Amino acid sequence: MNKQTVVSGIQPSGQLHIGNYLGALKNWVEIQNSGKYDCLFFIADYHSITENYDPKEKKEQIFNLAVDCLAAGLDPRKSVFFIQSQVPACTELAWVFNTITPVSELERMTQFKDKASRQLKNINMGLFDYPVLQAADILIYKGVLVPVGEDQIQHVELTRDIARWFNHKYQTDYLPEAKPLLTKSARVMSLADPEKKMSKSLGAKHFLGIDESKEKILDKIKKAVSTAEGIENLKAIYESFLEDMAGDFKPDKMGETKAVMAAGIYNHFASFREKKQELLKNRSYVNKILAQGKKQAEKIATKTILEIKEIIGLAS
User: Fold this and answer.
1) Active site includes 288?
2) Is pLDDT at 119 greater than 70 in this prediction?
3) Of 58, 78, 200, 216, which residue is the catalytic one?
């Protein structure tokens, strides 16, 4: 019996925080280790350039994210791990999908509105067309399941619609209709403003990096707001790292609770920090894994795009 294909990506945009870890990496490793799926995980570098960034830093961000993923437990023997932009068939498929996707469908995407509001001087076409490239990311590998949190369901639904529109227009059943694989993780909010999702773009006091020092973690947790919403957010974070906590969550004793949380979170990433340092010293090994992943992904994607071109009447 063939395994279902799982596809997911993560953007290289600097230091990873606990929201990234709980929302993506931790789940990827669990899915991979279950042995139930064929897994393809990628670094979404094309997606990352739709937002404001420094080109001088991007290559290092991509490499560091690869290191973080491997240090967190992603295993190239169990998953295909690669860089999005190194498989050009994906953007070819995105163009094909652009010809069947109504503009009105993209206009209603809530993430476009959210991201556009954060970069008013750079509301670019890539930001608007982001969900179409995301659909290509998934369907170029015949992805059936996409591990996401609830805030990403809308994009997976659009991917299903695009597959349906394609199949209907070209009278085929070639593309599968992907489904969200809902992951069990808290929606981690900002430490300083718990009404907003944790994000590096909000500033250093808003997020907790997974490889920050013990002192920095304690300092940020101590300064986290303790309003009703803030305590609810801290409790969700506490419960996400419950196995590492050496004390109870006490809303009436937040000073004590925050100290317990800081120690538990720091301890949770002890092996991660150790593996990361080893990988940083072996750049050639990391690059070899990415080259291997590129080759594996390219083989699947090239076959798909050639078959797509045949279906839509283009010379291959």
Assistant:
1) no
2) no
3) 200
Place of tokens 């490239």: 133
**Is 258 one of the annotated active-site residues of the chain?**
no
The whole-angstrom separation of Cα 45 and Cα 298 is: 16
Contact of 140 with 148, CB cutoff 8 Å: no
User: Which of 142, 197, 220, 276 is an active site residue?
Assistant: 197
Q: Which spans in the chain are helix H?
A: 18-20, 26-34, 45-48, 55-71, 89-98, 103-107, 110-118, 125-139, 153-169, 214-223, 228-240, 254-268, 270-280, 283-312
Question: Which of the following is catalytic: 26, 115, 142, 258?
Answer: 115
Residue 121 has pLDDT above 80, yes or no: no
The amino acid at residue 299 is K
| DSSP β-bridge partners for residue 305 | none
pLDDT in tens, 161-188: 999 999 999 999 999 999 988 777 667 9
Tokens, residue 14: 């600097």
CB 144 within 8 A of CB 4: yes
pLDDT (tens digit, 9 = 90+) per residue, 36-80?
999 999 999 999 998 888 999 999 999 999 999 999 999 999 999
Q: In 10 A of CB 123, how many CB atoms?
A: 14
1 pLDDT above the threshold of 80: no
